[in-house]
Structure formats: C-alpha cells, structure tokens
Hints:
The structure holds two protein chains of two kinds.
Chain A: E1 3-7, H1 13-37, H2 42-51, H3 57-82, H4 90-107, H5 116-142, H6 146-166, H7 202-218, H8 220-230, H9 232-237, H10 242-269, H11 280-290, H12 295-319, H13 325-345, E2 346-350
Antiparallel strand pairs in A: 1-2
Chain B: H1 2-30, H2 38-54, H3 59-83, H4 88-106, H5 132-136, H6 141-159, H7 161-171, H8 173-179, H9 183-209, H10 221-231, H11 236-258, H12 265-284, H13 287-292
Helix pairs in contact in B: 1-6, 1-9, 1-10, 1-11, 2-3, 2-4, 2-9, 2-10, 3-4, 3-9, 6-7, 7-8, 10-11, 10-12, 11-12
Amino acid sequence: MRYRIERRPEPSALMRVAAPAIATLLTIIVGSVFFAVLGYDPLATLNAFFVEPVSSLNGLSELLLKASPLILIACGLAVGFRANVWNIGAEGQLIIGAIAACGVGLFYPDPESFLLLPLMLIAGAVAGMAWAAIPAFLRARMNTNEILVTLMLTYIATLLLSWLVHGPWRDPAGFNYPQTALLPGAAMFEPFDYSYRLNSSIFITVIAVVAMWLFADRSFLGYKLSVSGAAPLAARYAGFRESSAVWTGLLAGGAAAGLAGMAELSGPLGQLSPQISPGYGFAAIIVAFVGRLNAFGIVLGGLLLSLLFLGGEAVQMSLGLPSALTRIFQGILLFFLLAADFFIFYRLRRLAEHA
Amino acid sequence: MDLFVAIFTGTVIAATPLIFAALGELVVEKSGVLNLGIEGMMLVGAAFAFWAVVAGLPMPLAILAGALAGAAASLLFGVLALTFLTNQYAAGLALAIFGSGVSAFLGRNFGSEPIDGLKPLAIPLLSDIPVLGPLLFRYDPLVYLAILSFVAIAWFLSRTKGGLILRTIGESPEIAHAIGYPVVKIRYWAVLFGGLMAGLGGAYLSVAYTPLWVENMTAGKGWIALALVVFATWRAYRVLLGAWLFGGMTILQLQGQALGLAVPSELLSALPYLATIVVLVIISQNRQMLAEHFPASLAKPFRPTV
C-alpha cells in the first residue's frame, strides 16, 4: 500500500481544531512510553502527573493560579504573533514588571494606602511595556531583529533581578537570604479563600481574554495586524505601516507580561527572590500556538500548560522525578502540534496499486 | 605580559564553543533554513558528553557522543521544518525548550563533582618558542579542531561545487530543484551538520571549558551564536572574528571580577548580552551589507511540487 502526500484544495477547518487535541494525545502517549522506559508504571505515573494534581479543590486552585499568568501573557503575545512580530522575551518583561511593582510596593510612602495595589498594577504594566519598547524601537527604527533582542533582554532582566535581591533591595532582616522584604498587606491581592492561593488577580486575565477577543476579531487595528502578518505586501499596499504592527505587537506582549509579573508578586510570591518564574514567559509562547492565537483557544492552552507545570511538580515530590520533565513535555507538545498542523493544509492519499 | 597571555588564550578558549555552534548555524542558514534551537542542541550535547565521561568512556568518544546527540536533536527540528513544512521559528523554539529539559533531566544525577576534563596538548617544539609557544601552541585539541573547521567550512562554502550547490539552495530552492538537486535532502544534511557542530560546542563547554555539571550551562551561548551569524552577515571569516570578540568580552568580564572592580558582578555578567544587542543594532544599519550574503530563501518552507 503506498501513500502520497498532497495539498488539500481547501485548508481543513476540522484539522485546525483537532490538531491541538491530537498533539495532546500523542504527547501523553510518548510520555507514558518515556515513563515505562524509566521503569515506572506508566498508568500510575500518568495518574500522578495529570490527574492527582487536580483532583482536589486545592489542586484546581493551583491549576487556575498557574494558568492565569500563562493565559494573560499568551493573549499579549498572540497580538504580536498574528503580525509576525516575534517577542520571545516575555520572561524578561515579566521580571521587569515584577521588579517595578515591587519597587512601588516597598517604597510608596503610605504602605496601607488603598492606592498601593492599583499603582503597582500600573507600574508592572508600564515597566513591561517599557522593556518591550526597546526591541520595538530597535526593530521599527533600527531594523534590528526582535527575536534576539527580546531574548538578550531576558538574560539582562534576570541579572538585574539578581543584583537587586542580592544588593540594594535585600531585606535587612532576612538572615542574608537573597530576597526583598515581604510586601505590606495592601500590596497583595485578596485570595478568594485563605486556605487556597487563588486570588482576585485572575480577573486581570479574564479582562485580558475578553480584550484580546474584541481586539483581534472585532477591531480594525486587529484586522490590520493580521493582514500585516499574513500578507506584508498587501498590508503595505493598503497603507498599513509595518512599524505600527511592530509597536502594537511588542507593547501588547510587554504589558501583558508585566502585569503577569506584578500579579505573581502580589499573589503567590509576596516578595522578590532570584527566581520568580518557572518559565511562564516561554511556556506562554506554546500556549499562544496551542490556542491558535485566538482568545478561547488560549484559555484551553493555558490550562493544559498549567497542568504540565503542576504535574512536573507533583511527580518531583511523589516519585522523585526531576521537574525538568515539564520542559520536555512542553517541547514534545509543541513538536506534535506543529507536525499536526501540517495536515491542515495537506493530506495523505492512498495510491491505486499499479498492476 | 602574563596578563596579556592569559587574556589572549582565555579569549581563544572562550570563543571555541561559539565558533563551533555559529559555524554550524552558518551552514544551516546558507541552505535557507533557520534553526533557532542552537541553545537546546548545545545543552543536549553538553549533557551527553558529560554523561559519557562519567560513564567512563574515553574522552574522544565522549566528545563524539555530545556531537551526535546534538545532531540527533537537530533531526527533530529537521523533520518538522523540512518534511512537515512547519514555521521554522516555532520549531526552533520548541527544540530550544525541549533540549534544555532533556539536558536538565539527564543532569539530575551528575552531582557537583568536577570531572577529569580535556587536557591541553602542548605541541612538541612549537610550544617551547618563547611568547608564541604559550600564545598559540598549548591549547586542547578541540581549539585546533574549531580553527580547522573554520578553514574547512570557509573553503567549502566559497571554493567547492558542494558549497555552490548549498548556496544556490539557500538563494532559490525552486531553481536548485529545477536543475535537479535534491533540495530537501541537502537541507537535511545541513541541519544535521548544524546539530553536530552545536553538540560539539556544548560538549566543549561541559568537558573542557568548565568540566563541571551546571544546569543550563550554556547561559545563552546558543542564542549569541545565532546573533553571530547575523553579525557576520553570513560570511565565515566574520563568524570567527565575532566569536573572538565575544570570547574576549567573556574574559574581560572574568578578569574584571577577579580584579574586584567596584561594579556589581551582575553588570559584568550582562556585558555579553548587552554587547550582542549593540553589535546587532550596528550591523543592522548597513542594509546593503546585510543583504549581500543573505540567503534569500531563509526560513521559507519549500516542498517540491513534482
């Protein structure tokens, strides 16, 4: 039996929706083979990785807690990706957002002011945008590739954070640990229930998802961006400036990542330390792709990637497997998704047997 | 004088992993393919080479293991980018994330003990020449291999028929295909070669440069290698110059820390990343120079229609 790959006359709408599900399934299959090879019972391990972490109320709270920054950042990044603007430095923008918010939280004269949290929110978003404005300016005005600049700025942001918590912002009463003082209560988001960590910052994400949906599917600017990405020549002909796509794409991603950094700080963290994100900024890139760059898909993608983070932590504790598994699974998921995407445009066709 | 020798030799050594990885990527990009996953391939190479040393393999085999692991990792990207016609940016990013995960996973049992790393090789007679001996003839074998691969790749790209075919494919895969060259197959070989070189660069880091396992030990060198190819405007000799420039930056930073300069160590550590941005901005101003050797089909998927 011979098969031939041929281009579909029309892209398959079914495959566009089915590809993420197929990729998830294949990732789970590869994961179980991997566990079996390592000498663990695959079913029990899959259960420990994907089911147990979310089979309690606390687990669900953690799932949403981790999905929130992923979805928020992915919404911002998707705006850029639609316009073919490759911001892969959301991790750095997240860190800078958290730093700026922490600066406000620590040094605002009145630590009990009800203005504290809103000010931190603004500081986080503005700082993330400012950090993303560097690659935007360099790409729009100086013709410099944004992929490399956003990534280099992530390394620089990490070092800046490290310097702050080891040096000027180190908590004097912190037994020499590299961390800032705990933020005052007015700088923190209220948890819904003090037994769990999920807090009201999730509403920022909800707003971002709605904004992303309105912007991308209902606004003229969103349309212009998509045209810039899909057909740059047509966009130029229609008078859409490439530089406005670059600025919008990068600033949206920067604002979202900065907000996510602020929400992490004023939520589960409460203070800065050298490592404040398990790679949300990078994982959000995968979320945006799994979610097909649209708002609803990104929510599902964010929940999935959040589950991968939770599962990685769970098997680290229960089976002693390294949490690096999370990144392996993230990579495999993206591999399969990209491969499955091929079948949106192509199909396998059985060839007639030759006599 | 001693300081000069230390800075000079330190520069050459620090540049070696960058030379391997960036030259490999140069060949890949010359074929019209953009593999962003260098960082992942280097990390996989570093982990496998280190693991092979710990497992008791002789040094040359361990280095080979690192290189082959890098090549195997690149094949994942190759299948996606060349067979499945995926967006190459996304496929490269997936490889970068996957590679860092695999490397950290393998490294979980390596502990923090240093291994017996690759030793410098004093070339008889030549290494005894005053001044020049210590400057040029007392490196470990991989340093010489890096220089040799530069010569070989520069010669291959500009002076051989194979190099011409590769460049044609990078310029216009349609024309190369019409002439009858197997575009996809040759691109696969280019991608594999890039992976091999990145794996070699990673192996150099873990078994020679700092023979000690540290998670994420590449610390962005794969991305800097990617930037070097742009900085070099796709020309081999400028890749070499760029790698030495960045090697020198690393060494000045280490010397600065050793001298106890009154600046935060984080600022010194940030220098290579800052320099990458500055250098990219400067080179990007010269559009003509960028365009001259730029492979016109870079990152565009190609599938023969017949």
